[in-house]
Structure formats: structure tokens, C-alpha cells
Amino acid sequence: MGERVCAVIVTYNRKELLRECLQAVLSQTRPPDHVLVVDNASTDGTPEMLREEFPQVEVLRLPENQGGAGGFHEGMKRAYEQGFDWLWLMDDDTLPSPRALEVLLLEGRALFRGSFVVAREDEGRTAFPYPLKEGNFSSAVEEIERGYPDGRIEGFLHLFPGTLIHRAIVEKVGLPLKALFLWGDEMEYRLRAQKKAVDMETLTRAVVYHPFDRQSIKRIRFGKRTVQLPFHKDPCRHFLILRNQVYFYHKYLGSSRLALRLLLYALFFPSRLGLLFKAILAAYRLSGTNSHPLERKEG
């Protein structure tokens, strides 16, 4: 018997997008062995739609909205405990191309494999930037594919749109940190995996479609170096971005890089200094309480 794959899809109040996503997942040339939808307490008729149109899909309905971080935490935990070998992770706004899972399984080498995330609004662009070999980043599909003619970007991936993760990685790295809720939980998980020397890759022939990154970016140039500061017009979402960035910069990237980032935020977003201060306090409170269940302790 071959290795078994569970697709884990997190949704919240977007039943039309979820319907499209499920249709694409169930129509794969190599379909997953099981599909688990984690419903973050949707109120738009999602449960009814799932019962009527997708009775073959398992639904894990959470009692309250726990954000993307909580949704993937609970979904990955359920699929892991059910014994699946591979977990194929995505939000409800991810639309996998017909061969995406087949390519991930057949062409991947690492146990942590990323799909190539192309923008739904423009198939010539990626939804998120990818690194080029000379150290720059690009969102131009042709340029990225030209830079990686073997179809493999080693050491990098974007979570969670179409990520394929082996259960051995869950054992080693743990589960997403629920407390991050939204905006940055995917970066924290990738940094945590990198800290544990987990091999990862993106396969450019495993295409999934996803909306452009909804964060706005302010780019600041220092000679040849560019610093990107994400922000959001909604103060609540901007708070989550700030808090979660302070958390993972402090935990994984170093105090000097964090200090520079905080200084730049203060200079370029002076109207939100109060929000920045609250985010810093919340991030340091968070750093003293986090845990990653299933994570294997080293040493």
C-alpha cells in the first residue's frame, strides 16, 4: 500500500471559494486519499453546503474562529493522529491545478514541499515573491522559471497554499502556533523548520492559484539592500502583523534585525506608534507562553 495523503483545507465564511477549492482538490490526477475541511465557525451557510454537496469530505467544525493558525493547528493535528503519511495544506482561496498533487508526490525530494503559488488575478505573476539565485526576489513567473530550469527552488517555500508536508516533519517541528491567529503564522512555522535544519523546496511545476498577497508593502532601499515593511489599513490586522513579526524576529532572526525593523516602523508609521508599542508588549508576553505540541525536543 502506498503512502496516504490527507488534504487539509481551512475555511471561514467563504463558501463559494471553498466550493471551487474542493472541486479542484477532488479532481486531481492523483486525488488525495482523504479530505479534511477545518471550518472556523463559519456563519455563511458553509456547513450546509458541505453536507449537501460534499458528503465524502470530513468536516472538523471549530467552536469559534481560531484564525488560520488555529485552523491549521487543529487540522494538522487531526490528520497526523489519523495516521496519514502526507498532509496537503491550503486555505479555501487556494485553487490547485489538476496535476499539482501528482507533481509534488512524484518530483519532490524533501519532506517539506511547496507548490508554486501563481496569482489568480494574473497568471504571469506569482501571488508572493520568490528568491532568485543572485539574491533578489521576483514575482514574474517567466523570470523565476528561467532561474530554476530544473523546476526546483531549494531551501524555500510559501506556507500554506498547497504545501505538502510529511508526518515526520510534524513530529520534528510541531504544529502551527495557535496564538498567532493570523498574518505571520506561516513565516513562524517556516523559520522554526529552518532552525531545525529541515530540508524544503518549491516545485515550480506544481502550480496552485491564490489571490495576490493582501498585505501592503512599503519598500525602503539602503543602497543595494531593500527592507520590506508590511502593513494593513485595518488597525486590528496591522496589530497582528506587528505583533507576530516582533515575535518571530525576536525568536529566530536576532535582536539587531528586530531593533532595525522597529526603528523603521516608528519612522515610517508615526501615526501608529501606540499600536506598535502594544504589539511589542503582546509579542513578548506571547514569547513566554508558546508551545508547539508534537514537537520532538532535541538533545
UniProtKB/TrEMBL annotation:
Recorded hits in InterPro entries, A to Z, give: Glyco_trans_2-like, Nucleotide-diphossugar_trans
Describe the location of the Glycosyltransferase 2-like domain by residue ranges: 7-136
- Which molecular function terms from Gene Ontology are attached? glycosyltransferase activity
Q: What does the UniProt keyword field contain?
A: Glycosyltransferase, Transferase
Query: By its UniProt entry, which Pfam families does this protein fall under?
Result: Glycos_transf_2
Gene3D superfamilies, per the entry: Spore Coat Polysaccharide Biosynthesis Protein SpsA, Chain A (3.90.550.10)
Give the record's family classification: Belongs to the glycosyltransferase 2 family.
The entry's protein name is Putative glycosyltransferase
